[in-house]
Specification:
This protein is an alpha/beta fold. Helices cover 40% and strands 15% of the residues. The structure holds iron/sulfur cluster.
Length: 319
């Protein structure tokens, strides 16, 4: 049975039609936002979607700041608003443009690959950009003996395990505090409790968590796997918003969070009230502006990444 929408959800839907606004929401958004969004996906899917928007006058991007920056660069001039402009990803904060410049001095000529979870300013110092689903493919495509990589040290570790290229951490402490909360022992226990389940971990999880999981991949890959696989029970090690989305979309399947406290406080800064406020007032401070020099460089490195598929499992099913 379809869930009845709340009053505020109905108001947003009405106003977004009037404003010709498209709402893009990340997989980690609260369910109430996902329910009124025009498109829900991972950071790469949302970036690709914003490059392909036609017939809308504005985009509301419900996610964290670096994602909205990518949307603003790719949206062909359509203004992009973020409901709460304080939603900054703590992982992205580990690597600044200055830090990359320092590392480039230390390792002259070594290509720099940054994870999408970086600011537009930090990306302006990079040669390549990758997502969790495309990191191995991007590193191999470069064809160099070694690369500088950051900010996520766990994703770096994953790439290291799947390629012969030497991976030099730009910042070895870089990690996502949400994905670091998953524990290998907890996943082992859940697998004992649900022997028919398949465990899928995000590459931002620790090496130990990745090792005890059956698959490792991006949220986009998790969505695809749950939809297409014959398995009926899944243990999911990523932010709770995606677990809730998967359960809502697949009531016939059992989606178990590997840890139900894995909630990203930054993602959860976005609320229905803030989306409604932006639609009503179009506040200047919520409009995403990326300086031209960063925007041009970002387009260039995103274009380099467009050659890779960046989809599918980062590691196939073990059994
Ligand atoms: S889940 Fe982690 S990587 Fe994603 S926005 Fe939150 S802190 Fe950043």
């Amino acid at each position: 049975m379809k869930k009845e929408l709340s009053e505020i959800q109905k108001k947003i839907i009405e106003l977004k039609k009037k404003r010709k606004a498209l709402i893009l929401a990340h997989n980690y958004q609260i369910m109430e936002i996902q329910e009124i969004a025009d498109f829900v996906g991972d950071s790469l899917q949302l970036a690709r979607k914003s490059a392909d928007v036609k017939g809308y006058d504005m985009i509301i991007f419900s996610g964290v700041n670096f994602m909205a920056e990518m949307a603003a660069v790719l949206s062909n001039g359509i203004p992009v608003y973020i409901p709460d402009n304080r939603a900054l990803c703590p992982l992205a904060a580990y690597v600044s443009a200055e830090k990359i410049r320092e590392m480039k001095k230390k390792y002259p000529g070594v290509p720099v690959v940054v994870y999408v979870n970086t600011t537009a300013e930090a990306k302006s110092e990079a040669d390549y950009i990758c997502t969790s689903g495309s990191a191995v493919e991007v590193v191999e495509l470069i064809g160099a003996d070694r690369v500088l990589f950051g900010p996520d040290a766990h994703l770096a570790e994953f790439v290291r395990a799947h390629t012969d290229v030497e991976i030099i951490d730009i910042e070895p402490r870089g990690h996502c505090y949400v994905h670091r909360q998953f524990d290998a022992a907890q996943i082992i226990l859940l697998k004992e409790e649900y022997p028919d389940a398949i465990a899928i971990a995000h590459p931002e999880c620790s090496k130990e968590v990745q090792e005890v999981s059956d698959m490792v991949g991006s949220t986009g890959m998790m969505v695809k796997t749950v939809a297409e696989s014959d398995y009926k029970t899944f243990i999911i090690a990523t932010e709770l918003g995606l677990v809730q989305q998967l359960q809502a979309q697949h009531p016939d399947k059992r989606i178990i969070p590997a840890y139900d406290g894995a909630v990203c406080q930054q993602m959860k800064k976005q609320t229905l009230e803030k989306i409604l406020y932006v639609l009503e007032n179009l506040p200047e401070e919520n409009l995403i502006k990326v300086p031209e020099e960063y925007a041009n460089h970002l387009k260039l490195i995103l274009d380099r990444m467009s050659k890779v598929k960046g989809q599918g499992p980062a590691r196939a099913v073990k059994h």
